[in-house]
Design a protein that fits this description.
The complex is a heterodimer of chains A (176) and B (309). Chain A has 176 residues and is α/β, with parallel strands linked by helices. Chain A is 22% helix and 33% strand. Chain A is built from three helices and nine strands, in the order βαβαβββαββββ. In chain A, helix 2 links the parallel strand 2 and strand 3. The longest helix of chain A has 18 residues. Chain B is α/β, with parallel strands linked by helices. Chain B has eleven helices and eleven strands. In chain B, the strands form three sheets. Chain B has a five-stranded parallel β-sheet with strand order 2-3-1-4-5. A four-stranded mixed β-sheet of chain B has the order 6-9-10-11. A two-stranded antiparallel sheet of chain B has the order 7-8. In chain B, helix 1 packs across helix 8 and helix 6 crosses helix 7. Chain B is elongated, with a radius of gyration of 28 Å. The interface between A and B is medium-sized, with 23 and 23 residues.
């Protein structure tokens, strides 16, 4: 049995930055000559967002959403709600949603429906880690850096009980 | 109520439509009305002339930045949203092919009967009448073929084709009025049944399905419970011997969900069914939610505790 805590490194700082530059290149090509609004969901994507946007060459704005899940409201309608909404009006804007991890897609589905209501001119999704094997909703992911291995991960924004987000790499985490 | 009437010249189509409009108290939208009242809003004298002469001109871009055909289609759709109406010609049977509750009618007659009617009404000789019919039929056919790339004579464009060889205009109108009223009552009953179905609480076959529905509700994700059954296996005579009804359909994400909280040995049977469905219906998106995934979600949202431990 492993000691609880971060284990082996799954993606090094260098691997992350190399892959990130490749994905940024794709985004730069696709949005050449356009203005972009980057929307990110706090907090797991902060480092990814910061590094990615510094590789992007088009004029862009950044805004954040924050979501909370409240189990206590399970029997009283929606258990997911926004604790922070956008400041930027997305109407007729090109929007890129930047996520840290996409798993079941349920939370992403909630966000997508919210953003679609704002009437953007276009909408795409970029994720640091994608776990298509666990997907419940069918959602097109436009840009992905890595496919997620079947393990719990921390670092580069990902946490275990709010810790380890500041690790510059992504590591396996042993909970037991 | 929407009735579209397509007619062959000399088939009593115009007479039947006028009588039908009186019986049902409905306005009739005709080509004349469109040319005299709608198109002058966007077309000058020359353009109006071209529209009256050439179906191909309908595909030119108008001052509105869309084709004349699209402009007409938009106006017809806007009108029909607010009013009941009979639309006479104009390709309405194609524009409104999917309109719920619409009745699409074609009125025709044999060439001999049509010819006799034209000879009488227009005081023409037989050969002139035949030639006249040939030209008008060609015009009708060309309009539908040019704008909608459909065959005007295709019987599947219509719900009812009325042969007036042995039917008077009055009887034809009465028959159509009866059908239209019946269809309206039918669609009202259908709408009431659908409302009733929506209002009725869903009866889930398994408690885990109810919990999964709650998880979807928490995410504001619309769902339908077992809305469709897919045949997946047939015997040699074509009878369905195995079918599969996925537990949920999520319309906003065009995704079917099969939930399984069964033991692993039964899961492979479900997986096989899902694979068969994907092979037979490649455009259908279906995902399986397995036991451990479901329990993780249920625990996360406080719906159950530690059953997977």
């Amino acid at each position: 049995m492993n000691t609880p805590g971060p284990g082996r490194i799954v993606y090094t700082e260098e691997q992350i930055q190399t892959r990130l530059r490749e994905v940024a290149g794709e985004i730069n090509r696709d949005y050449a000559g356009k203005k972009l609004v980057i929307v990110s969901v706090l907090k797991g994507s902060i480092y990814f967002l910061a590094d990615l946007t510094r590789q992007l060459t088009m004029p862009l704005s950044i805004d954040f959403l924050s979501i909370a899940a409240s189990p206590s409201s399970a029997n009283h309608g929606s258990g997911i709600h926004f604790t922070r909404n956008l400041d930027i009006n997305l109407k007729d804007r090109h929007v890129l949603l930047v996520e840290d991890v996409i798993g079941t897609g349920l939370t992403l589905g909630y966000v997508i429906q919210h953003l679609a209501d704002a009437g953007p001119a276009s909408f795409k999704i970029c994720t640091l880690l994608d776990n298509p094997a666990g997907r419940i909703l069918t959602i097109k992911i436009d840009y992905r850096c890595f496919t997620m291995p079947d393990m719990f991960l921390v670092g580069y924004g990902l946490d275990y009980k709010e810790e380890y987000r500041n690790l510059p790499y992504i590591a396996e985490y042993h909970r037991h | 109520m929407l009735i579209t009437v397509s007619r062959e010249t000399g088939s009593l189509g115009k007479e039947i439509t006028d009588l039908l409009a009186l019986k049902l108290d409905l306005p009739v939208i005709t080509r004349d009305l469109v040319m005299n009242q709608w198109f002058p809003e966007i077309a000058d004298k020359h353009e109006l002339h071209m529209l009256s002469e050439s179906p191909r001109y309908f595909l030119n871009e108008s001052s509105q930045g869309i084709t004349y055909a699209a402009y007409l289609e938009n106006l017809l759709k806007e009108y029909v949203v607010q009013h009941s109406a009979i639309i006479f010609g104009l390709g309405a049977q194609i524009i409104f092919a999917r309109q719920p509750g619409a009745l699409h009618v074609k009125i025709m007659a044999s060439p001999q009967v049509r010819s006799k009617r034209i000879m009488k009404n227009l005081n023409m000789g037989e050969r002139d009448a035949e030639r006249f019919l040939e030209l008008t039929d060609r015009k009708h056919r060309r309009y539908i073929a040019t704008i909608y790339e459909r065959d005007w004579a295709d019987p599947t464009l219509y719900h009812l084709i009325l042969n007036t060889d042995h039917i008077s205009a009055e009887d034809g109108a009465e028959l159509l009025a009866f059908m239209a009223r019946d269809l309206q009552i039918g669609s009202k009953m259908q709408a009431a049944a659908e409302n009733d179905r929506e209002a009725r609480p869903v009866v889930f076959k398994h408690p885990s399905e109810e919990e999964f529905a709650k998880i979807l509700d928490m995410h504001d994700i619309k769902w339908e419970y077992e809305p469709r059954t897919f045949p997946i296996e047939w015997d040699t005579e074509g009878n369905v011997i195995q079918a599969f009804a996925p537990d949920f359909y999520l319309p906003h994400f065009n995704t079917y969900i099969e939930l399984t909280t069964m033991e692993q040995k039964y899961v492979s049977h479900k997986k096989k069914k899902v694979k068969m469905l994907q092979k037979l219906y490649p455009d259908i998106n279906i995902n399986i939610v397995f036991k451990h995934e479901f329990y993780q979600l249920a625990e996360r949202f406080g719906l159950r505790k530690g059953e997977d431990d």
